Amino acid sequence: MTAAEIEAAAEAASLAALPPGAGEQLAAYLQLLLKWNSKLNLTAVRQPAEIVRRHLVECVQCAQALPVTQTLLDFGSGAGLPGIPIAIVRPEIRVTLGESQGKKAVFLREAVRALGLNAEVFDQRIEKMAAERVFDAVTLRAVDKMTEACRAGAERLRSGGWLVVFATAGTEESLKPIGAGIDWARRLGIAGLDDGLLLLGRKR
Question: Model-level pTM greater than 0.70?
Answer without folding.
Answer: yes
